[in-house]
TrEMBL record:
SUPFAM superfamilies: P-loop containing nucleoside triphosphate hydrolases. Residues 8-180 form the CobQ/CobB/MinD/ParA nucleotide binding domain. This is CobQ/CobB/MinD/ParA nucleotide binding domain-containing protein. It comes from Bacteroides faecalis. It comes from the Bacteria. It holds the Pfam family CbiA. Gene3D superfamilies: P-loop containing nucleotide triphosphate hydrolases. InterPro entries: CobQ/CobB/MinD/ParA_Nub-bd_dom, DNA_Partitioning_ATPase, P-loop_NTPase. The lineage of its organism: Bacteria, Pseudomonadati, Bacteroidota, Bacteroidia, Bacteroidales.
Length: 261
């Protein structure tokens, strides 16, 4: 079991891989396990903050199952101070950080160094694989540079996988990429491309998402708590139990797809 509070950062320099959606759906998953969660939105677009505001207008603030806070990843001192504060907050079990889809922000180094787990979503395609490989090499160089200060486990997640896509030669590349990525961390089961994973909510029930993400999220959860069972009795609202809602759709930008989440 990792000592709590545990900081889990969702990161990749390649935009459009679904890290923001996975960050929120993992928060919702942890709530069902009785975990006390806070989400830190450091992405340039602050899509999670925007979704939380929309959820509050729709459902009311009293139904919020966890706090969502916005921070800018461009300030190294602010991010260093935030990481230290979060690691010493006894009221929190798990902190989820949605990082920018870029390596240009100055605060990323203290963010990554102080993370206990880094979740790296990617797609099996000819653009995302080399970009993800470059990101993993960056994390590896950072780990070597700072030594024992950086203890983050890496979970590398093939996300939004479409089994219908890929020529025979490309499938060989996908297999080779999985083998190479496994040298940097644990490559999880694939999360299939489904319409239910196109949107997210910071309050409402997971609906069909639960079955889609459970194999991957349970693997990460067990690595944190050494059990698949809830760590305490979850307190769920009617929305979290039964509501099928109109979920927020992650925003995209045209800036080279670097910030698409």
């Amino acid at each position: 079991m990792i000592q709590t509070p545990v900081i889990v950062t969702f990161a990749n320099q390649k935009g459009g891989v679904g890290k923001t959606t996975l960050c929120v759906t993992f928060a919702n998953y942890l709530v069902t396990k009785g975990v006390r969660v806070v989400v830190i939105d450091c992405d340039f677009q602050h899509s999670i903050i925007k979704c939380r505001k929309a959820d509050i207008r729709k459902y009311g603030e009293e139904f919020a199952p966890y706090d969502v806070l916005a921070y800018e990843a461009g300030d190294k001192k602010v991010m260093t101070s935030l990481m230290e504060k979060l690691h010493n907050e006894p009221s929190i079990d798990v902190v989820l950080v949605d990082s920018p889809g870029s390596l240009k922000a100055d605060g990323l180094v203290p963010m990554f160094v102080n993370s206990d787990i880094i979740v790296v979503p990617f797609h099996y395609d000819l653009v995302t694989i080399p970009s993800t490989a470059a990101f993993l090499m960056f994390i590896d160089r950072l780990r070597k540079a700072v030594g024992e200060r950086m203890k983050a486990q890496l979970f590398i997640v093939p996300n939004l996988n479409d089994g219908r896509v890929g020529k025979r030669s490309e499938l060989v590349i996908w297999d080779n990429a999985r083998e190479t990525f496994s040298n940097y961390g644990h490559v999880t089961a694939k999360i299939p491309k489904r319409a239910d994973m196109e949107r997210f909510s910071t309050m409402a029930a997971l609906d069909m998402q639960a079955g889609i993400i459970a194999p991957v999220f349970e693997r990460i959860y067990v690595s944190i708590f050494d059990t698949a069972n809830p760590i305490r009795e979850p307190v769920l609202s009617g929305i979290q139990l039964t509501k099928k809602s109109d979920k927020c759709k992650p925003e995209t930008t045209g800036e080279g797809n670097q910030n698409q989440q």
